[in-house]
Every structure is written in structure tokens, then in C-alpha cells.
Amino acid sequence: MSSAVETRADEVPYTLDEPAPKVLGFWDQSAFWANLGVSLFAFSGAYTVLAPDEAGRPTLPILAGIVAMAVGTALGGLMLGLAAAPGAKTGQPAMVLLRGLFGARLSYVPTVLNIAQLVGWGTFELIVIADAARALWDDVPRWAFVVAAGVLTTALTIRPLGSVRLLRRYVTAAVLIALVYFYVQLLREPLPDLNHGSWGGFWTGADAALAVSISWVPVAADYTRHSRTSRAAFGAAAVGYSVTQIFAYVLGLLALALVAGDSTKVFDPFLNVSLGVAFFAVFVLREADQSFANVYSTAVSIQNLVPRADRRVLSVALGTGITVLALVFDIGDYQSFLSLIGSVFVPLLGVLAADFFLGAGRRGWDTGRAAPARWSMIVAWAAGFAVYQLVYPGGVGWWARGWTHVQSWLHFTPQSWMSASLLSFAVAGLAALAAGRARR
Questions:
Q1: In the chain, what are the domains?
Q2: Which InterPro entries does the entry mention (predicted)?
Q3: What local confidence, expressed as pLDDT, does residue 265 receive?
């Protein structure tokens, strides 16, 4: 009996009716976010920070991509920290927090969007794990790796806080050793000219890197609600994630330079060095923490819609679902997916940060199931979303053409210095503050 009680007191409750235990310290959270910052997407998707054109050809030189990625990641890390702190302060998961921002029923809108993007990310992660594993062991069928990754992902979600501690104790050290080893090996190779080309698409590349960080913003509080302090939650998320993502992306861009920009061969430089297979296997196995975080947060997001649903049942169903999707689909237009995520959740964070730290949140949000609607916050969010689309409509044909017509109607021409992320964040935040003051 006592063992069962200890387990429940030290682990995530099964439903939202139970309080969240405050058991994660700074180093637990730092290890968690640091591991999320090192992703196989940083290698396979490194080309996105080179601002590829419609034909998929990079427009930025490697050096410009590195600088753009570092700037975008640093800004994204600060935004991630802003999203992490409210969870620690209130003890509420991310989508429940939005009841205080938008109202209970209006919070269902971002919740559904978040569920959709998390299912997409979870599916992508299983595909990347399977493709990377195939590069190591090509005699094993792809479906076997997808199923194995899906099973491991689902198992981790059953005891999420235990999984976070597991990362700190064992996985983080192995990942850091593998990163250092590959840096030493790749820097010994003759690199081409890294600064040949124009820096004109700098902010497009920075926004692509920022969008990867932002993809974790709508789930950050799912984990930091278990943090002992808000300061630990902010620092661990902002610093832990940013540092390792920068290291991983630079490594991915160096590998991309060694294969002449061919993103389909970006894993080759890792596998061709001495002991490369063994160290790369560390990255492949560690990637399961990405899919675990996506599946667990999807379950917690669903609980905002159905508070008494058991997260274990939801996790098993979701783990099975993304495994099936990964068996059927392949990675499509990754850059357009990142752009869409950024255009939705960057302005959402602008509204949340402004209202929580400078507006009504200072007096305390109502996050109950009957929290009243706050349409003015929805309007502020929509304003930020519109600014993002005006500056960068993305790469989805019909959607981009529609916003191009709006640009023409407004006689607006985006400039190369404009960052869609920063402008939409600022506009959404200022609109939220103005709405809050007008209401008072």
C-alpha cells in the first residue's frame, strides 16, 4: 500500500482532478530540455535554416545559416522560458492555462490545434527514428523500427516523471559525449567555403529555427507544472534547450556542407567516421524522448477537453495511432509545417506572456471549467497571426497565394529585415495589453 502511495505522490496524476506534484528540480528539467534540444531533426532538417527556395535549393550560405539558427534558437529559448514559468507558478498544464487567457470554452480552439500539431510531430519523430535506424541496420525492415519506436514511446508515457529522471541520470551524459565526438571527427574533414552566397534570407532562416523552439511552447507547462520553482522552470527551459539545439544544428549544418547540401545524405558524414555507427546509435535511441514528449502532451491536451479521461489510456491509444500513421505516411513539406506552427503559436505566446506577466495574470487567472470567455484575447491572437502571414505566408500554395492578394490589397511589401516571428509576437502582445487596459 505504501509503495503505491509513494508512486502516485511522485508521479503525474491520472486525471486533471488531482493536484500536480512539485518534484522536479532545476537539473531534472535542464536535462529534459537539453535532450529535447538534440534531435535528429537538427540533422535531417538543418537545410530549413538555409532558407530554401520553392525548388528546395538553399539560398543562404552555411555560415549565414549558422548565425541565423543561433539567433532564432536564442530568441526561441527565451520564448520557451516565458511559456514554462506560468506552469510552475499555477501548477496547471499548458492547455488548461489557456482557460485563464481565453476562457474555458474558447481554450478548446488552441487545444484542438495543439493536438493536431503534436500528432504530426509524433508521427514525424517515428519516421525519423525509423529512417535513421535503417541507415544503421538496413537489413531490418522499416516497419519493424517504426513499431519498436512506437512501443518504446508509449512505454515512456506511462511514467512521464520517471522518464524525465531517467534522462538526467543516464541519457544526457551519453548524448553529450556523442556530440563532442562527432564535432571532433567532422571538423577534421576538409570543409568547403561556408560563406559563399547572399545573406538576404537571414530572417527566414532565423524564423525556421525559432519555429522549432516554438513547437515546444504549447506543451512546456505540461512538464514545468511539476517544477519546484518558476525560476528553475524558466532557466532550465531557456538555457538547457537553446544550448543543445545550437550545438546540434551547427553539427547538422557542418554535415550538410560535407555532402554539398544534399539533405538526403546528411547522415552519411556521421556514419562514415570511425565508431560513427555506435555513437550515432545513441542519437537514434535518444530520439524516443521527442516522441514521448509529443504523445504525453497530446494526452494532457485532450484532458483539457475531457478532464476525467485517464492519461494512461489516452497515451496507449495515441501511441498506437501515431505508429499507424508513421507506417502509412512519409515526411512531406517540413519547412511549411514549421512555418504553420510558428504562425499559430508565436502570437499565442505573445498574448499569453503579455496578459500573464503584465495584465490580468498578475491578479490570478481563472482556470476553472466555467472560466468566462475573453474574446479580446482571441482578437489579439488573430492580429498577431495576420501579421505573421503578411510578412511570411509560408509555402502552402493556395494559402500563400491568398495572403499575397492581401499584401497587394494593403500595398504591403515584406522587407528582408522583417522577422515574421518577432513582429507577430510584438503585435499580439501589445494588442493583448491594450485590450486588457481598455477592459479595466
A1: 2-439 (1.10.4160.10)
A2: CodB, Pur-cyt_permease
A3: 85
